[in-house]
Amino acid sequence: MKDLRDYSLLAHNTFGIDVKCSRFLEYETTAEAQQVADVLRHSSIPYIIIGEGSNLLLTRDFPGIVVHSALKGWEINGTRMSCGSGEAWDDMVEVSLHHGLYGAENLSLIPGDVGASAVQNIGAYGVEVKDLIVEVHAIEIATGRLCILRRDDCQYSYRQSRFKKEWKDRFLMTKVVYELSSTFNPRLDYGNIRSELEHQGITTPSAEQLRQTIISIRREKLPDPRELGNAGSFFMNPVVSRQQFEVLAAQYPDIPHYLVDDAHEKIPAGWMIEQCGWKGRSLGRAGVHHRQALVLVNRGGATGADILRLCQAIQHDVYDRFGINISPEVNIV
What we know:
By secondary structure, this protein is of the alpha+beta class. It is built from 8 helices and 20 strands. It has helices spanning 30-41, 89-98, 114-120, 193-199, 207-221, 242-251, 269-275, 304-322; strands at residues 2-8, 20-27, 47-50, 56-57, 62-69, 74-77, 80-84, 123-124, 127-128, 133-140, 146-150, 171-179, 229-233, 239-241, 258-261, 264-266, 282-283, 286-288, 295-298, 331-332. Strands 6-7-12-10-11 form a 5-stranded antiparallel beta sheet. A hairpin with a 2-residue loop joins strand 17 (282-283) and strand 18 (286-288). The protein is globular and about 55 Å long.
């Protein structure tokens, strides 16, 4: 078990914010996770649990314990794949395709680790990881016991789970079990997947061709955090009532939208941010990416507080124009 004091978190957040925590604990096995749980149980200082830091905004030094999983490994049994919580999510997608297991290819290149996939209910291009998850194995911090949490227990919804609400910082994840398919059923009708495939002259893609197309689209839209600090999509796409949507559609006939159910529509937050003139703009050392308005970036030397001020300015302008509150997808500490 790694146990470090006065530890820099620069390498643990993709925004590139250099702050410190009082203590850093990292576990590589289930037994070490139980040791960490014991430390947290008997500690009087606060703690947070992080993944790869790709969905995290650190606004200050953290006067407590930061916990991180480095638990690796994967196992395949039929169409089920069990992955250590510290495995990189995209590695899981690559390995699954290599073994002829399908369903995760639309989630290619999403940053973060396997544990975070279950916390955030990651999603992209018409697929959400909740539809693949069978079980989450985790150590309950209060008792140190191993718990097996079923998908329905986790109460998944759009970018939400109980791990982000009443279960926040209650469990140390050890592995996630996914149910995949031995039959490839491509999902091509979300975003510009089909048009990009047609541009390549592909009408019936293989799973690997679809994965590489998703990777290409994401790389074109999203900056590499190693070159420009960011946490991917910063805001969630808001879901509004049918009545509110119809009022907006009368004002903005070209407003993009996605049907959620008979009573609700999802509106892209990036479109609203762009309509408010924020795309490509900066507020001090923090800015909005010039190709994707959902992405806030560290233009060099920005603090977490700088990014947060930009977030709040954008939220204000979107609400002022559209009457909609847009919420951060990232975890702000």
